[in-house]
Amino acid sequence: MSLHLGIRRPRKHRAVDAVSNLRAENHQLLGQVVGAGQAITSLERELADVCGKRAEAEQVVVCLEANLRERTEERDLLLAEVAALKARLAPYLAAEANANAITVPPSIRDTDAMEDQATEPIKVLTLAEAHGISPVIRIADAPAADPRTPTWVPGSDDGPETTQTFRVVAA
Hints:
The protein is mainly alpha-helical and 171 residues long.
């Protein structure tokens, strides 16, 4: 009997083991090559589909561009025609506007119908006009007043108008 103490001797590399390892690796690599070939075929099919769709899209773009050019030319012709018709119609519109113009002042217009009630322009007045206030008169230019009445008088003519001084006007 042999005594085994748990010490293992290294196996020597044998050629048979190396050949089997190489065969296993070769089998694995062949599987990868087949998978890569299938992936390449799938990608080539997708590329062909994309190229076909791109060609269709380019054809659609060309057709749309031609259609856009035609519509633009048609629009320009129609705009020119509308401008010409407006120019021809302008005298008729002016004659109709003159014929239907209201020449009677609003306050004397016939007001029998409810929608034709007489109106006058709104009289807009300033506060001074509405309340009968006259412009400010300088006390120095005003007629004589009671000498004991204190009044506000603008300062000198050379100074700013906002500056005022207080003085009692003496008679």
